[in-house]
Amino acid sequence: MLKVARTHTVNMKKAHTDRTRPGRSNGSEMDAAALSAAVIQWFRLHQRDLPFRHTTDPYAILVSELMLQQTQVATAVSYFERFMDQFPTVQALAEANEQQVLAMWAGLGYYRRARLLQSAARKIAEDYSGVFPTALVDIQALPGVGRYTAGAVYSFAYDRPAPIVEANTARLLARLFAIRGAIKSTANQAQLWKHAEQLLPAQNAREHNYGVMELGALVCKPVPLCDKCPLTRWCAAFQTGQSTTIPEIAAKPTKLRRHFVGIVACSGEHYLVRRIPEGEWHHGMFEFPSVRVEHGQTAAQHLNALESMTIGTCASLRDVDSFAEYRYTVTNHAVHLLVYKANALPAASWPESFQWKTLHEISRLPLGSTQRKLLDLLQSQDDLLAVIR
Ligand code: SF4
Hints:
Layout: H1 12-17, H2 29-46, H3 58-68, H4 73-86, H5 90-95, H6 98-105, H7 112-127, H8 136-140, H9 147-158, H10 167-176, H11 186-199, H12 205-218, H13 236-239, E1 256-267, E2 270-275, E3 286-287, E4 290-293, H14 299-309, E5 315-330, E6 333-346, E7 354-357, H15 359-363, H16 369-388
Parallel strand pairs: 1-6
Antiparallel strand pairs: 1-2, 1-4, 2-3, 2-7, 5-6
The protein binds iron/sulfur cluster (SF4).
């Protein structure tokens, strides 16, 4: 089993002023060094070819790290490349308008990440003249950057030692040290961070951290592939037959149900869309207007809700019919969206947050993935009608 000595400490203040490294201790330290060497050797042979690993640009790494939160790697790759084409530098992102940024993020979900990323870029532009900070403490002070993201940027971009703990490393470390109990408990999180720090080598922090994450992602998976793992001789869970019972899986909280109704209000070639206001999910994005309703309400009640809460000031509706239905998840909510379609007679004026646009114009707005599906459905019907005509 693995015993580690404290090889060094990443102290935020010391990191800031760069940084003498605490002395090494004796004996079991060799275990940590050997383990790290095994991780790095494995990583060099088995790492996936991911575009954000080809760069040491801290800005690009920050973009990728924020994208990878809550998003599968394969999905994040294509978004990352398009985002970097559009906003290749901190300055470019800082100067963009929020709508452009949200449009590039559309479909990834958790749009708060995009806004925080732009806030970070603006802070770097204003406080650091556009030059990405090099001190760990300054990186962690950027909007949207927590301890993990700061450590990732610091080690991946500058190859300097900072511990990282995210989902994959947490699972691997919990098994290496046979940590039982809820992995997210405060006490266990503290243990995981302590172990991540103890295992960090003095050199090659970049490859070590990448390697630990990659091992967690590809080998020490929820169902671990111990026969492919280079760490079995150090792994307490493996040695004691607990590989499949650590970490303990917490029961998933039941999702809260939310019901919404939406309206596709059509006036000739123009459709009514709404910029989602602050305080609502996906604010800053656009949608075909929708409102939350109670479960079990009638179609008449749905229309009342739509007219009184959203489009009543924009248009009067006729020929209303049900059109589409979607079920999806937002954070811990199970959402049911029922969409109606109607012909609309626009009012003389309407609130600023509403706009009448063609389908082509709407396609260029920042839309969430369900709204994008709804738009695709409308465009396919439009294409069909054009063929019939
Ligand atoms: Fe994970 Fe198995 Fe490797 Fe231990 S030996 S780190 S449980 S894959």
